[in-house]
Sequence to fold (642 residues):
Amino acid sequence: MVGRWKANLTRAVGHAGAIAGSGDDARAKEKWFMDKFGVSDLFTPENPVCSKKGAVVTNIAHIPQALTAVMKLNGEEKDFPPEGNLELKPWFGDNQGLKLPAALDIPVVKALAPYDIQIAELLKNVGAIFPRQSMKDCSGSSVMDPKTQVTKVNNISILDCSKQPLESNLCLALVRELNDENDNALYNLAVAAHVNLHNDPMLAAAEAAREAGNAPNTAISAAVALLGPKRADAARAAADSLTEIFAHSGLLKGDDEAAKVNPAAATAEQLATLVSDKADSKAEAMLKAFDKRGAKSVFVKYLRSLKGHPTADAVLAALTTTVAWEPLMRKRISKLTVRNLPWYTKLFGMIIGASTEAKHHAAGSFCGVDNQEILDSWTVTQLAYISLLGERPTAASLLPLQVILGLIISNGVGTISSQGCKGAVSADGPESPERVQINKGMIGFLTHTGFAHGGNGYEGIQFLIENFKDTPLADAGNANHGIDLKKITTDFAISFNKEKKQSKALGTGVRNIPGVNHPVFKGLPVNHDPRETYITEFFAERGEKNVFHDFYKTLVQSLYDNGVTANVFCVNIDAVIAASLLKLLWPRYRNGQFSENLMEMAAFTAFLFGRMAGCAGEIDDHINRGRNMDTRTPASQCSHVS
Fold:
Protein backbone atom coordinates (compact mmCIF):
# COMPACT_ATOMS: atom_id res chain seq x y z
CA MET A 1 0.00 0.00 0.00
CA VAL A 2 1.27 3.47 -0.84
CA GLY A 3 0.15 7.04 -0.58
CA ARG A 4 0.20 7.59 3.20
CA TRP A 5 1.46 11.16 2.74
CA LYS A 6 -1.78 11.97 0.93
CA ALA A 7 -3.99 10.64 3.70
CA ASN A 8 -5.04 14.12 4.85
CA LEU A 9 -6.03 15.38 1.40
CA THR A 10 -9.70 16.16 0.82
CA ARG A 11 -9.76 15.62 -2.93
CA ALA A 12 -9.16 12.55 -5.04
CA VAL A 13 -5.74 12.67 -6.72
CA GLY A 14 -6.04 9.72 -9.03
CA HIS A 15 -3.62 7.37 -7.25
CA ALA A 16 -4.57 3.91 -5.99
CA GLY A 17 -4.27 3.89 -2.24
CA ALA A 18 -4.48 7.66 -1.99
CA ILE A 19 -8.15 8.32 -2.74
CA ALA A 20 -9.40 10.86 -0.25
CA GLY A 21 -12.49 10.53 1.89
CA SER A 22 -13.62 9.14 5.20
CA GLY A 23 -12.52 5.60 5.81
CA ASP A 24 -10.94 4.92 2.41
CA ASP A 25 -7.56 6.61 2.54
CA ALA A 26 -4.23 4.74 2.50
CA ARG A 27 -4.12 4.01 6.24
CA ALA A 28 -7.73 2.85 6.25
CA LYS A 29 -7.03 0.42 3.41
CA GLU A 30 -4.06 -0.97 5.31
CA LYS A 31 -6.46 -1.64 8.22
CA TRP A 32 -8.91 -3.40 5.87
CA PHE A 33 -6.24 -5.87 4.79
CA MET A 34 -4.85 -6.35 8.30
CA ASP A 35 -8.33 -7.30 9.47
CA LYS A 36 -8.80 -9.60 6.45
CA PHE A 37 -5.46 -11.35 6.98
CA GLY A 38 -5.73 -11.43 10.74
CA VAL A 39 -2.49 -9.55 11.42
CA SER A 40 -1.82 -6.74 13.86
CA ASP A 41 1.05 -4.94 12.15
CA LEU A 42 2.81 -4.31 8.87
CA PHE A 43 5.31 -6.83 7.54
CA THR A 44 8.99 -5.78 7.51
CA PRO A 45 12.14 -7.92 7.45
CA GLU A 46 12.79 -6.87 11.05
CA ASN A 47 9.18 -7.51 12.11
CA PRO A 48 7.86 -10.30 9.83
CA VAL A 49 4.20 -10.20 10.89
CA CYS A 50 2.00 -12.45 8.69
CA SER A 51 -0.63 -15.19 8.70
CA LYS A 52 -1.68 -18.05 6.44
CA LYS A 53 -3.97 -15.58 4.67
CA GLY A 54 -1.31 -12.99 3.90
CA ALA A 55 0.76 -10.00 4.99
CA VAL A 56 0.55 -6.23 4.53
CA VAL A 57 3.64 -4.45 3.19
CA THR A 58 4.39 -0.80 2.46
CA ASN A 59 7.64 -1.42 0.61
CA ILE A 60 7.52 -3.29 -2.67
CA ALA A 61 11.01 -4.69 -1.99
CA HIS A 62 9.58 -6.67 0.96
CA ILE A 63 7.06 -8.61 -1.15
CA PRO A 64 9.32 -11.64 -1.91
CA GLN A 65 10.12 -12.14 1.78
CA ALA A 66 6.49 -11.67 2.79
CA LEU A 67 5.27 -14.19 0.20
CA THR A 68 7.90 -16.69 1.31
CA ALA A 69 6.80 -16.35 4.94
CA VAL A 70 3.08 -16.71 4.08
CA MET A 71 3.69 -19.77 1.87
CA LYS A 72 5.76 -21.38 4.63
CA LEU A 73 2.83 -21.07 7.04
CA ASN A 74 0.73 -22.84 4.38
CA GLY A 75 3.21 -25.70 4.19
CA GLU A 76 4.71 -24.66 0.87
CA GLU A 77 8.51 -24.50 0.71
CA LYS A 78 10.65 -22.95 -2.05
CA ASP A 79 10.88 -24.95 -5.25
CA PHE A 80 14.66 -24.65 -5.29
CA PRO A 81 17.40 -23.31 -3.01
CA PRO A 82 17.94 -19.52 -3.20
CA GLU A 83 20.86 -18.12 -5.15
CA GLY A 84 22.36 -14.77 -4.29
CA ASN A 85 20.25 -11.89 -3.03
CA LEU A 86 17.99 -9.15 -4.30
CA GLU A 87 20.57 -6.35 -4.18
CA LEU A 88 20.99 -4.21 -7.30
CA LYS A 89 23.44 -5.90 -9.65
CA PRO A 90 24.11 -3.57 -12.61
CA TRP A 91 25.56 -5.04 -15.79
CA PHE A 92 26.78 -1.63 -16.88
CA GLY A 93 28.15 1.32 -14.92
CA ASP A 94 30.05 4.56 -15.42
CA ASN A 95 30.91 7.00 -12.65
CA GLN A 96 31.98 9.57 -15.29
CA GLY A 97 35.25 10.05 -13.43
CA LEU A 98 33.50 11.07 -10.19
CA LYS A 99 34.59 9.73 -6.80
CA LEU A 100 31.35 8.43 -5.31
CA PRO A 101 30.63 7.34 -1.71
CA ALA A 102 30.89 3.58 -1.22
CA ALA A 103 27.11 3.26 -0.85
CA LEU A 104 26.61 4.75 -4.30
CA ASP A 105 29.62 3.18 -6.01
CA ILE A 106 27.82 -0.02 -6.93
CA PRO A 107 30.09 -2.64 -8.52
CA VAL A 108 29.31 -3.95 -11.98
CA VAL A 109 28.64 -7.71 -12.09
CA LYS A 110 28.78 -10.27 -14.87
CA ALA A 111 25.46 -10.62 -16.65
CA LEU A 112 23.48 -13.83 -16.96
CA ALA A 113 23.87 -15.93 -20.09
CA PRO A 114 23.44 -15.21 -22.96
CA TYR A 115 23.73 -11.52 -22.16
CA ASP A 116 27.22 -11.90 -20.72
CA ILE A 117 28.56 -12.94 -24.13
CA GLN A 118 26.75 -10.10 -25.88
CA ILE A 119 28.07 -7.53 -23.39
CA ALA A 120 31.60 -8.92 -23.67
CA GLU A 121 31.45 -8.39 -27.43
CA LEU A 122 30.03 -4.91 -26.96
CA LEU A 123 32.83 -3.95 -24.57
CA LYS A 124 35.40 -4.81 -27.22
CA ASN A 125 34.24 -1.64 -28.96
CA VAL A 126 36.39 1.28 -27.85
CA GLY A 127 34.80 4.69 -27.52
CA ALA A 128 31.28 5.94 -28.09
CA ILE A 129 29.03 4.80 -30.93
CA PHE A 130 26.43 7.46 -31.72
CA PRO A 131 23.10 6.68 -33.42
CA ARG A 132 22.64 8.21 -36.87
CA GLN A 133 19.90 10.80 -37.25
CA SER A 134 19.04 13.93 -39.19
CA MET A 135 21.21 16.73 -37.80
CA LYS A 136 19.54 19.62 -39.61
CA ASP A 137 19.29 22.51 -37.16
CA CYS A 138 20.31 20.33 -34.23
CA SER A 139 23.59 19.58 -32.50
CA GLY A 140 25.13 17.34 -29.90
CA SER A 141 27.95 19.85 -29.47
CA SER A 142 26.30 23.19 -28.67
CA VAL A 143 23.04 24.51 -27.28
CA MET A 144 21.89 28.09 -26.77
CA ASP A 145 19.61 29.27 -23.99
CA PRO A 146 16.97 31.19 -25.96
CA LYS A 147 16.31 33.58 -23.08
CA THR A 148 19.86 34.56 -22.17
CA GLN A 149 21.47 33.90 -25.58
CA VAL A 150 24.33 32.27 -23.66
CA THR A 151 25.53 29.12 -25.42
CA LYS A 152 26.97 25.99 -23.86
CA VAL A 153 29.58 23.92 -25.69
CA ASN A 154 29.57 20.34 -24.46
CA ASN A 155 27.74 21.56 -21.36
CA ILE A 156 30.29 24.31 -20.59
CA SER A 157 28.96 27.88 -20.75
CA ILE A 158 30.83 30.25 -23.04
CA LEU A 159 31.12 32.52 -19.99
CA ASP A 160 33.22 29.80 -18.39
CA CYS A 161 35.02 29.22 -21.69
CA SER A 162 36.20 32.83 -21.52
CA LYS A 163 38.21 31.90 -18.42
CA GLN A 164 40.02 29.18 -20.36
CA PRO A 165 42.93 29.60 -22.79
CA LEU A 166 42.23 29.01 -26.48
CA GLU A 167 44.07 25.68 -26.45
CA SER A 168 41.66 24.28 -23.85
CA ASN A 169 38.59 25.50 -25.73
CA LEU A 170 39.84 23.92 -28.96
CA CYS A 171 40.00 20.57 -27.19
CA LEU A 172 36.70 21.09 -25.36
CA ALA A 173 34.90 21.32 -28.68
CA LEU A 174 36.32 17.99 -29.87
CA VAL A 175 37.01 15.77 -26.84
CA ARG A 176 34.07 17.23 -24.86
CA GLU A 177 36.13 18.12 -21.80
CA LEU A 178 38.34 21.01 -20.73
CA ASN A 179 42.07 20.39 -20.57
CA ASP A 180 44.17 20.01 -17.48
CA GLU A 181 47.67 21.47 -17.29
CA ASN A 182 49.33 18.49 -18.97
CA ASP A 183 46.75 18.42 -21.76
CA ASN A 184 47.43 22.09 -22.44
CA ALA A 185 51.17 21.47 -22.61
CA LEU A 186 50.65 18.67 -25.12
CA TYR A 187 48.17 20.53 -27.25
CA ASN A 188 50.15 23.76 -27.28
CA LEU A 189 53.07 21.80 -28.69
CA ALA A 190 50.87 20.02 -31.24
CA VAL A 191 49.45 23.26 -32.66
CA ALA A 192 52.74 25.18 -32.39
CA ALA A 193 54.37 22.65 -34.73
CA HIS A 194 52.05 23.76 -37.56
CA VAL A 195 51.88 27.57 -37.52
CA ASN A 196 55.04 28.26 -39.53
CA LEU A 197 54.15 27.84 -43.20
CA HIS A 198 57.47 28.93 -44.70
CA ASN A 199 57.78 27.64 -48.28
CA ASP A 200 54.41 25.90 -48.01
CA PRO A 201 51.94 26.38 -50.89
CA MET A 202 49.20 26.95 -48.29
CA LEU A 203 50.86 30.23 -47.35
CA ALA A 204 51.23 31.22 -51.01
CA ALA A 205 47.52 30.54 -51.55
CA ALA A 206 46.50 32.70 -48.60
CA GLU A 207 48.85 35.49 -49.67
CA ALA A 208 47.53 35.46 -53.24
CA ALA A 209 43.95 35.61 -51.95
CA ARG A 210 44.81 38.57 -49.71
CA GLU A 211 46.47 40.41 -52.58
CA ALA A 212 43.30 39.89 -54.61
CA GLY A 213 41.43 41.97 -52.04
CA ASN A 214 39.72 39.18 -50.12
CA ALA A 215 38.66 39.44 -46.49
CA PRO A 216 40.52 37.29 -43.92
CA ASN A 217 37.99 34.46 -44.01
CA THR A 218 38.31 34.02 -47.78
CA ALA A 219 42.09 34.33 -47.76
CA ILE A 220 42.40 31.68 -45.05
CA SER A 221 39.94 29.45 -46.95
CA ALA A 222 42.35 29.36 -49.88
CA ALA A 223 45.00 27.87 -47.59
CA VAL A 224 42.59 25.49 -45.86
CA ALA A 225 41.66 23.98 -49.24
CA LEU A 226 45.23 22.69 -49.55
CA LEU A 227 45.20 20.87 -46.21
CA GLY A 228 43.27 17.95 -47.63
CA PRO A 229 43.08 14.35 -46.41
CA LYS A 230 46.35 13.26 -48.03
CA ARG A 231 48.21 15.79 -45.86
CA ALA A 232 46.57 14.36 -42.73
CA ASP A 233 46.41 10.64 -43.52
CA ALA A 234 49.82 9.74 -42.07
CA ALA A 235 48.98 11.30 -38.70
CA ARG A 236 45.51 9.74 -38.73
CA ALA A 237 46.97 6.30 -39.46
CA ALA A 238 49.39 6.76 -36.55
CA ALA A 239 46.49 7.68 -34.26
CA ASP A 240 44.66 4.53 -35.41
CA SER A 241 47.72 2.39 -34.66
CA LEU A 242 48.15 3.81 -31.16
CA THR A 243 44.46 3.35 -30.41
CA GLU A 244 44.47 -0.28 -31.58
CA ILE A 245 47.68 -1.14 -29.71
CA PHE A 246 46.46 0.30 -26.39
CA ALA A 247 42.69 -0.25 -26.71
CA HIS A 248 42.60 -3.25 -24.36
CA SER A 249 45.83 -2.64 -22.49
CA GLY A 250 44.17 -1.46 -19.29
CA LEU A 251 45.32 2.14 -19.84
CA LEU A 252 42.68 4.58 -18.56
CA LYS A 253 44.57 7.90 -18.71
CA GLY A 254 46.91 8.84 -21.51
CA ASP A 255 49.31 10.69 -19.22
CA ASP A 256 49.64 7.92 -16.59
CA GLU A 257 53.20 6.89 -17.43
CA ALA A 258 53.39 4.78 -14.24
CA ALA A 259 50.34 2.69 -15.13
CA LYS A 260 50.82 -1.04 -15.49
CA VAL A 261 49.56 -1.73 -18.97
CA ASN A 262 49.80 -4.51 -21.46
CA PRO A 263 49.75 -3.06 -24.99
CA ALA A 264 49.25 -5.40 -27.91
CA ALA A 265 52.25 -6.29 -30.04
CA ALA A 266 52.47 -3.87 -32.94
CA THR A 267 52.18 -5.33 -36.42
CA ALA A 268 54.61 -4.43 -39.15
CA GLU A 269 51.93 -2.28 -40.75
CA GLN A 270 51.34 -0.40 -37.49
CA LEU A 271 55.05 0.14 -36.89
CA ALA A 272 55.34 1.61 -40.38
CA THR A 273 52.88 4.35 -39.34
CA LEU A 274 54.92 5.23 -36.25
CA VAL A 275 58.64 5.02 -37.01
CA SER A 276 61.04 5.35 -39.91
CA ASP A 277 64.59 4.23 -40.54
CA LYS A 278 65.60 7.88 -41.02
CA ALA A 279 65.67 10.63 -38.44
CA ASP A 280 62.91 13.23 -38.73
CA SER A 281 64.18 16.67 -37.71
CA LYS A 282 60.69 18.01 -37.01
CA ALA A 283 59.90 15.01 -34.81
CA GLU A 284 63.16 15.48 -32.92
CA ALA A 285 62.39 19.15 -32.35
CA MET A 286 58.91 18.25 -31.08
CA LEU A 287 60.26 15.58 -28.73
CA LYS A 288 62.85 18.02 -27.42
CA ALA A 289 60.05 20.51 -26.75
CA PHE A 290 57.98 17.76 -25.10
CA ASP A 291 60.76 17.29 -22.56
CA LYS A 292 61.23 21.03 -22.17
CA ARG A 293 57.56 21.47 -21.32
CA GLY A 294 57.73 18.68 -18.71
CA ALA A 295 54.79 16.91 -20.32
CA LYS A 296 53.66 13.33 -19.75
CA SER A 297 52.36 10.87 -22.34
CA VAL A 298 52.20 7.10 -22.39
CA PHE A 299 52.10 7.24 -26.17
CA VAL A 300 55.20 9.42 -26.54
CA LYS A 301 56.97 7.09 -24.11
CA TYR A 302 55.88 4.15 -26.26
CA LEU A 303 57.14 5.79 -29.46
CA ARG A 304 60.53 6.29 -27.87
CA SER A 305 60.67 2.61 -26.91
CA LEU A 306 60.36 1.44 -30.52
CA LYS A 307 63.25 0.61 -32.79
CA GLY A 308 63.57 3.33 -35.37
CA HIS A 309 62.94 7.05 -35.50
CA PRO A 310 59.47 8.42 -34.65
CA THR A 311 57.97 10.49 -37.46
CA ALA A 312 56.58 13.98 -36.92
CA ASP A 313 53.09 12.72 -37.75
CA ALA A 314 53.44 9.93 -35.17
CA VAL A 315 54.54 12.42 -32.51
CA LEU A 316 51.54 14.61 -33.38
CA ALA A 317 49.25 11.59 -33.11
CA ALA A 318 50.80 10.62 -29.76
CA LEU A 319 50.16 14.12 -28.39
CA THR A 320 46.55 14.33 -29.54
CA THR A 321 45.72 10.74 -28.56
CA THR A 322 46.99 11.42 -25.04
CA VAL A 323 44.59 14.35 -24.71
CA ALA A 324 41.69 12.29 -26.09
CA TRP A 325 42.37 8.98 -24.33
CA GLU A 326 40.43 9.42 -21.10
CA PRO A 327 37.24 10.69 -22.84
CA LEU A 328 37.63 7.80 -25.31
CA MET A 329 37.87 5.21 -22.54
CA ARG A 330 34.79 6.68 -20.86
CA LYS A 331 32.95 6.54 -24.18
CA ARG A 332 32.40 10.28 -24.39
CA ILE A 333 33.95 10.40 -27.84
CA SER A 334 34.38 7.95 -30.70
CA LYS A 335 37.47 6.36 -32.20
CA LEU A 336 36.67 8.42 -35.29
CA THR A 337 37.18 11.63 -33.31
CA VAL A 338 40.55 10.39 -32.03
CA ARG A 339 41.55 9.46 -35.57
CA ASN A 340 40.66 12.90 -36.91
CA LEU A 341 42.07 14.94 -34.03
CA PRO A 342 45.51 15.36 -35.69
CA TRP A 343 43.80 16.76 -38.80
CA TYR A 344 41.86 19.32 -36.76
CA THR A 345 45.11 20.21 -34.98
CA LYS A 346 46.96 20.83 -38.24
CA LEU A 347 44.06 22.98 -39.41
CA PHE A 348 44.08 25.08 -36.23
CA GLY A 349 47.81 25.70 -36.52
CA MET A 350 47.57 26.48 -40.21
CA ILE A 351 44.63 28.90 -39.76
CA ILE A 352 46.58 30.83 -37.14
CA GLY A 353 49.68 30.84 -39.33
CA ALA A 354 47.91 31.73 -42.59
CA SER A 355 46.21 34.70 -40.95
CA THR A 356 49.47 36.65 -40.97
CA GLU A 357 51.43 37.79 -44.00
CA ALA A 358 54.09 35.65 -45.67
CA LYS A 359 56.85 38.00 -44.60
CA HIS A 360 56.32 36.81 -41.00
CA HIS A 361 57.11 33.19 -41.93
CA ALA A 362 60.85 32.44 -42.12
CA ALA A 363 62.82 29.21 -42.24
CA GLY A 364 63.79 29.47 -38.59
CA SER A 365 61.14 31.71 -37.07
CA PHE A 366 57.49 32.76 -37.00
CA CYS A 367 56.63 36.43 -36.43
CA GLY A 368 60.21 36.97 -35.34
CA VAL A 369 60.19 34.20 -32.72
CA ASP A 370 62.57 31.24 -33.08
CA ASN A 371 60.81 28.01 -34.08
CA GLN A 372 62.28 26.01 -31.20
CA GLU A 373 61.22 28.66 -28.68
CA ILE A 374 57.67 28.42 -30.01
CA LEU A 375 57.75 24.64 -29.70
CA ASP A 376 59.32 24.76 -26.24
CA SER A 377 57.05 27.24 -24.51
CA TRP A 378 54.45 29.12 -26.53
CA THR A 379 50.72 28.60 -26.04
CA VAL A 380 48.07 28.60 -28.75
CA THR A 381 46.60 31.77 -27.22
CA GLN A 382 49.98 33.50 -27.48
CA LEU A 383 50.35 32.35 -31.09
CA ALA A 384 46.91 33.74 -31.92
CA TYR A 385 47.90 37.03 -30.29
CA ILE A 386 51.20 37.49 -32.14
CA SER A 387 49.66 36.54 -35.49
CA LEU A 388 46.86 39.05 -34.96
CA LEU A 389 48.75 41.91 -33.37
CA GLY A 390 52.34 41.37 -34.47
CA GLU A 391 53.99 41.63 -31.06
CA ARG A 392 54.84 39.42 -28.11
CA PRO A 393 52.00 39.43 -25.60
CA THR A 394 52.32 40.20 -21.93
CA ALA A 395 50.15 38.49 -19.34
CA ALA A 396 48.10 41.69 -19.07
CA SER A 397 47.59 42.06 -22.82
CA LEU A 398 46.89 38.36 -23.40
CA LEU A 399 43.96 38.10 -21.00
CA PRO A 400 41.51 40.33 -22.94
CA LEU A 401 42.11 38.32 -26.10
CA GLN A 402 41.61 35.05 -24.23
CA VAL A 403 38.29 36.31 -22.85
CA ILE A 404 37.10 37.44 -26.29
CA LEU A 405 38.01 34.15 -27.97
CA GLY A 406 36.22 32.15 -25.28
CA LEU A 407 33.04 34.21 -25.58
CA ILE A 408 32.78 33.75 -29.35
CA ILE A 409 33.60 30.03 -29.48
CA SER A 410 29.96 29.36 -30.39
CA ASN A 411 26.59 31.03 -30.61
CA GLY A 412 24.62 27.84 -31.10
CA VAL A 413 23.86 25.61 -34.04
CA GLY A 414 21.59 28.19 -35.67
CA THR A 415 24.36 30.63 -36.56
CA ILE A 416 25.38 31.02 -40.19
CA SER A 417 28.93 29.82 -39.49
CA SER A 418 27.68 26.60 -37.88
CA GLN A 419 25.21 26.03 -40.69
CA GLY A 420 28.01 26.43 -43.21
CA CYS A 421 30.27 23.78 -41.73
CA LYS A 422 27.40 21.36 -41.08
CA GLY A 423 26.18 21.74 -44.65
CA ALA A 424 29.64 20.86 -45.92
CA VAL A 425 29.66 17.64 -43.85
CA SER A 426 26.12 16.80 -44.90
CA ALA A 427 27.04 17.16 -48.58
CA ASP A 428 30.01 14.78 -48.29
CA GLY A 429 27.95 12.11 -46.55
CA PRO A 430 28.74 11.43 -42.87
CA GLU A 431 27.30 7.91 -43.11
CA SER A 432 30.58 7.17 -44.92
CA PRO A 433 32.88 9.16 -42.62
CA GLU A 434 36.00 8.60 -44.70
CA ARG A 435 34.44 10.64 -47.49
CA VAL A 436 34.06 13.72 -45.32
CA GLN A 437 36.73 16.32 -46.01
CA ILE A 438 37.21 18.05 -42.69
CA ASN A 439 39.11 20.89 -44.31
CA LYS A 440 36.09 21.47 -46.56
CA GLY A 441 33.92 21.63 -43.43
CA MET A 442 36.23 24.34 -42.09
CA ILE A 443 35.96 26.16 -45.42
CA GLY A 444 32.17 25.98 -44.99
CA PHE A 445 32.54 27.74 -41.65
CA LEU A 446 34.91 30.34 -43.09
CA THR A 447 32.82 31.15 -46.16
CA HIS A 448 29.76 31.50 -43.94
CA THR A 449 31.35 34.34 -42.02
CA GLY A 450 31.53 37.87 -43.35
CA PHE A 451 31.16 41.52 -42.54
CA ALA A 452 27.64 40.97 -41.17
CA HIS A 453 28.43 37.73 -39.29
CA GLY A 454 31.90 37.86 -37.84
CA GLY A 455 32.97 41.23 -39.15
CA ASN A 456 30.97 43.42 -36.80
CA GLY A 457 34.04 43.87 -34.63
CA TYR A 458 35.64 45.25 -37.78
CA GLU A 459 32.88 47.85 -38.12
CA GLY A 460 33.05 48.60 -34.39
CA ILE A 461 36.72 49.53 -34.65
CA GLN A 462 35.93 51.85 -37.56
CA PHE A 463 33.22 53.48 -35.48
CA LEU A 464 35.43 53.93 -32.42
CA ILE A 465 38.26 55.42 -34.48
CA GLU A 466 35.82 57.93 -36.00
CA ASN A 467 34.86 59.13 -32.52
CA PHE A 468 38.34 59.14 -30.93
CA LYS A 469 40.74 60.08 -33.73
CA ASP A 470 40.58 63.78 -32.84
CA THR A 471 41.02 63.27 -29.08
CA PRO A 472 44.35 63.36 -27.22
CA LEU A 473 43.80 59.82 -25.89
CA ALA A 474 47.11 58.00 -25.43
CA ASP A 475 46.22 55.00 -23.21
CA ALA A 476 42.74 53.46 -23.34
CA GLY A 477 43.35 51.72 -20.02
CA ASN A 478 44.08 54.91 -18.08
CA ALA A 479 41.20 55.72 -15.73
CA ASN A 480 42.28 59.38 -15.79
CA HIS A 481 42.08 59.68 -19.56
CA GLY A 482 40.58 63.18 -19.44
CA ILE A 483 38.07 62.46 -22.23
CA ASP A 484 34.55 63.85 -21.81
CA LEU A 485 32.62 60.78 -22.92
CA LYS A 486 29.26 62.40 -22.22
CA LYS A 487 30.03 65.26 -24.59
CA ILE A 488 31.31 62.99 -27.37
CA THR A 489 28.32 60.67 -27.15
CA THR A 490 25.82 63.54 -26.89
CA ASP A 491 27.29 65.23 -29.97
CA PHE A 492 27.06 61.94 -31.83
CA ALA A 493 23.48 61.30 -30.68
CA ILE A 494 22.32 64.75 -31.83
CA SER A 495 24.04 64.37 -35.19
CA PHE A 496 22.72 60.84 -35.64
CA ASN A 497 19.19 61.96 -34.79
CA LYS A 498 19.31 64.56 -37.57
CA GLU A 499 20.68 61.96 -39.97
CA LYS A 500 17.92 59.55 -38.94
CA LYS A 501 15.14 62.10 -39.57
CA GLN A 502 16.60 63.10 -42.90
CA SER A 503 16.88 59.49 -44.00
CA LYS A 504 13.26 58.85 -43.10
CA ALA A 505 12.16 61.95 -45.02
CA LEU A 506 14.04 60.78 -48.09
CA GLY A 507 12.92 57.19 -47.71
CA THR A 508 16.46 55.89 -47.43
CA GLY A 509 17.60 53.35 -44.86
CA VAL A 510 18.97 54.39 -41.48
CA ARG A 511 22.46 53.06 -40.82
CA ASN A 512 23.02 50.81 -37.84
CA ILE A 513 25.43 51.77 -35.09
CA PRO A 514 27.87 48.86 -34.76
CA GLY A 515 27.94 47.31 -31.30
CA VAL A 516 24.59 48.76 -30.22
CA ASN A 517 21.28 46.86 -29.84
CA HIS A 518 20.48 43.17 -30.25
CA PRO A 519 17.52 41.33 -31.81
CA VAL A 520 16.89 39.44 -28.54
CA PHE A 521 17.92 41.83 -25.76
CA LYS A 522 15.43 44.61 -26.38
CA GLY A 523 12.08 45.94 -25.23
CA LEU A 524 12.99 46.70 -21.61
CA PRO A 525 13.50 50.22 -20.26
CA VAL A 526 17.22 49.39 -19.94
CA ASN A 527 18.59 46.44 -21.93
CA HIS A 528 21.70 44.33 -21.38
CA ASP A 529 23.53 41.67 -23.34
CA PRO A 530 24.50 39.16 -20.57
CA ARG A 531 27.82 38.48 -22.28
CA GLU A 532 28.73 42.17 -22.19
CA THR A 533 27.56 42.38 -18.59
CA TYR A 534 29.80 39.47 -17.70
CA ILE A 535 32.82 41.14 -19.31
CA THR A 536 32.10 44.41 -17.52
CA GLU A 537 31.97 42.67 -14.14
CA PHE A 538 34.99 40.48 -14.88
CA PHE A 539 37.31 43.39 -15.65
CA ALA A 540 35.80 45.59 -12.93
CA GLU A 541 36.79 42.96 -10.36
CA ARG A 542 40.33 43.13 -11.74
CA GLY A 543 40.35 46.93 -11.51
CA GLU A 544 40.93 47.29 -15.27
CA LYS A 545 39.52 50.14 -17.35
CA ASN A 546 38.73 50.48 -21.04
CA VAL A 547 37.65 53.92 -22.24
CA PHE A 548 36.24 52.44 -25.46
CA HIS A 549 33.97 50.09 -23.54
CA ASP A 550 32.93 52.98 -21.29
CA PHE A 551 32.21 55.02 -24.42
CA TYR A 552 29.72 52.42 -25.62
CA LYS A 553 27.96 52.26 -22.25
CA THR A 554 27.72 56.06 -22.21
CA LEU A 555 26.56 56.14 -25.83
CA VAL A 556 23.47 53.97 -25.34
CA GLN A 557 22.35 56.27 -22.52
CA SER A 558 22.98 59.39 -24.61
CA LEU A 559 20.97 57.97 -27.51
CA TYR A 560 18.03 57.55 -25.15
CA ASP A 561 18.49 60.91 -23.43
CA ASN A 562 18.41 62.71 -26.79
CA GLY A 563 15.31 60.95 -28.07
CA VAL A 564 17.08 58.77 -30.62
CA THR A 565 15.90 55.52 -29.02
CA ALA A 566 12.72 54.74 -27.11
CA ASN A 567 14.67 52.91 -24.42
CA VAL A 568 18.28 52.28 -23.46
CA PHE A 569 19.69 49.86 -26.01
CA CYS A 570 22.13 47.17 -24.96
CA VAL A 571 25.85 47.20 -25.69
CA ASN A 572 26.38 43.91 -27.52
CA ILE A 573 29.27 41.46 -27.69
CA ASP A 574 30.55 42.92 -30.98
CA ALA A 575 31.21 46.20 -29.18
CA VAL A 576 33.20 44.31 -26.55
CA ILE A 577 35.37 42.71 -29.24
CA ALA A 578 36.03 46.03 -30.93
CA ALA A 579 36.71 47.88 -27.67
CA SER A 580 39.04 45.20 -26.31
CA LEU A 581 41.12 44.92 -29.48
CA LEU A 582 41.33 48.65 -30.02
CA LYS A 583 42.55 49.12 -26.45
CA LEU A 584 45.44 46.76 -27.19
CA LEU A 585 46.28 48.40 -30.51
CA TRP A 586 45.65 52.07 -29.76
CA PRO A 587 49.23 53.09 -28.82
CA ARG A 588 50.66 51.58 -32.00
CA TYR A 589 47.85 53.03 -34.08
CA ARG A 590 48.64 56.47 -32.65
CA ASN A 591 52.33 56.27 -33.52
CA GLY A 592 51.66 54.87 -37.00
CA GLN A 593 52.94 51.32 -36.38
CA PHE A 594 49.55 49.69 -36.93
CA SER A 595 47.22 50.90 -39.67
CA GLU A 596 43.47 51.25 -39.39
CA ASN A 597 43.04 48.58 -42.05
CA LEU A 598 45.18 46.10 -40.10
CA MET A 599 43.16 46.76 -36.95
CA GLU A 600 39.93 46.11 -38.77
CA MET A 601 41.28 42.86 -40.21
CA ALA A 602 42.50 41.82 -36.75
CA ALA A 603 38.99 42.24 -35.35
CA PHE A 604 37.56 40.04 -38.09
CA THR A 605 40.29 37.42 -37.70
CA ALA A 606 39.83 37.30 -33.92
CA PHE A 607 36.27 36.18 -34.53
CA LEU A 608 37.55 33.41 -36.81
CA PHE A 609 40.03 32.20 -34.17
CA GLY A 610 37.32 31.90 -31.53
CA ARG A 611 34.63 30.47 -33.77
CA MET A 612 36.89 27.84 -35.39
CA ALA A 613 36.77 25.92 -32.11
CA GLY A 614 32.98 25.74 -31.95
CA CYS A 615 32.66 24.95 -35.64
CA ALA A 616 35.22 22.15 -35.41
CA GLY A 617 32.99 20.69 -32.70
CA GLU A 618 29.95 20.96 -34.99
CA ILE A 619 31.86 19.25 -37.82
CA ASP A 620 32.97 16.37 -35.62
CA ASP A 621 29.53 15.99 -34.06
CA HIS A 622 27.84 15.92 -37.47
CA ILE A 623 30.34 13.37 -38.82
CA ASN A 624 29.58 11.08 -35.88
CA ARG A 625 25.79 11.50 -35.76
CA GLY A 626 24.56 12.79 -39.12
CA ARG A 627 22.92 11.33 -42.18
CA ASN A 628 23.80 12.05 -45.78
CA MET A 629 22.47 15.38 -47.09
CA ASP A 630 20.38 15.85 -43.93
CA THR A 631 20.65 19.65 -43.98
CA ARG A 632 18.51 19.93 -47.11
CA THR A 633 15.26 21.88 -46.94
CA PRO A 634 12.38 19.94 -48.53
CA ALA A 635 11.00 21.50 -51.71
CA SER A 636 7.58 21.80 -50.07
CA GLN A 637 9.05 24.24 -47.55
CA CYS A 638 10.73 26.42 -50.16
CA SER A 639 9.11 29.42 -51.81
CA HIS A 640 9.68 31.57 -54.88
CA VAL A 641 9.77 35.35 -54.94
CA SER A 642 8.93 36.99 -58.25
Q: What stands out?
A: The first helix runs from residue 26 to 37. Confidence is low (pLDDT under 50) at residues 17-21. The chain has 25 helices and seven strands.
